[in-house]
Amino acid sequence: MVEEQIDWRKTVEAILENANRPFVPISKSFIQQPRGSKERSSVLSQFVTNGDLRGLKAYLLIAASASSPDTDNEWYTSLPLQTWARAFGCSETAGTRILLRLQQRGLIEKSRCGKERKIKIKLLAQDGSGEEYQRPASRYIRLSHDFWKSRFDEDISLPALAMFLVVLGERTPCELPTEHMPEWYGWSADTAERGLRELQRIGLIRKEQHLKDAPLSPTGITTVNEYYVCPPFDKQTLDSRRHTHETKGGEA
Questions:
Q1: Which of 88, 109, 209, 217 is the most buried (most CB within 10 A)?
Q2: Buried b (16+ CB within 10 A) or exposed e, 87-117
Q3: Is the peptide bond before 232 cis (omega within 30 degrees of 0)?
Q4: Distance (Å, whole) CA 25 – CA 252
Q5: What is the SS3 assignment for 53?
Q6: Which residues are paired to 240 by β-bridges?
Q7: Measured distance CA(12)–CA(10) in Å, rounded
Q8: Long-range contacts at 238-243 (CB < 8 A, ≥ 24 apart)
């Protein structure tokens, strides 16, 4: 009965507070394999094609919670299963299934530790290879904790969240021809278009249309869409917050 009175948002906020930084770094290899790879789609496409929104949100929160390595250079975080499930907004049984899916995708290792039924979750390489995790120093995106603090996580759809991660990984402004989505990211053009429309509606990105030379078209010009990340998720805001955070002695 006591558990039902606990606001799960407070658990999420406490996890972010303990992380001691304003954003979570996510390797671009989680979103897309580098140029020259045999297949460009990466582990993110597994969440999208399997309709696993809850698993994706859980993974992003876990990645946010592991803010520093231990003496063995392992990146992990430990909380009781009941706490993890509450943070994921589900039952302990569903929470166990979520962690199992993340482990099967090669993103985490989980084990029990201590006498408090704590679950130790160790991060693995974010490309799903199962290799040891290394905090990304290049080719990574920064997902601001405002994603949770402003409660965008509550209602965002899977297509929108996947496309938000894609846009964060591109230069701003970016053009995203959706017909290339199956080859580049591993999901359909329709999924991408639905995600982009939702992101505009909820204010995470904005779209501008511009004319562009197209010498082989009937008119010689074409209209292209350019997408911009909105504050506080944009590079300028994150750079400013990072500087302020470091000045106060926090971890970047």
A1: 88
A2: bbbbebeebbebbebbbebbbbbbeeeeeee
A3: yes
A4: 10
A5: helix
A6: none
A7: 5
A8: 238/22, 238/23, 238/142, 238/144, 241/22, 241/23, 241/144, 242/22, 242/23
- Asked if 43 contacts 106 with a C-beta cutoff of 8 angstroms, the reply is yes
* pLDDT the model gives residue 250: 60
**Which two tokens mark 20?**
């001691």
In one-letter notation, the amino acid at residue 97 is R
If DSSP states are collapsed to H, E and C, what string results for 112-175?
Answer: EECCCCEEEEEEECCCCCCCECCCCCCCEEEEECHHHHCCHHHHCCHHHHHHHHHHHCCCCCEC
| Other residues' Cβ atoms within 10 Å of the Cβ of residue 72 | 6
Report pLDDT for 69: 78
Q: How is residue 66 written in tokens?
A: 């592991």
Integer angstrom CA distances of residue 205 from 42, 103, 174, 232, 234 = 23, 31, 11, 11, 9
Query: What is the model's pLDDT at position 230?
Result: 97
Q: Which pair of structure tokens corresponds to residue 37?
A: 């790879």
Q: What is the structure's pLDDT at 72?
A: 75
H or E element at residue 81? helix 81-88
**52, HSE (Cβ side, Cα atoms, 13 Å):** 21
| Average pLDDT along the chain, 252 residues, taken 10 residues at a time | 67 93 95 92 97 98 86 86 95 96 97 82 96 92 97 97 97 92 97 98 95 81 91 94 66 58
CB of 144 within 8 A of CB of 23?
yes
3-class SS shares of the chain: helix, strand, coil, % to 5: 45, 20, 35
Q: What SS3 class is residue 50?
A: coil
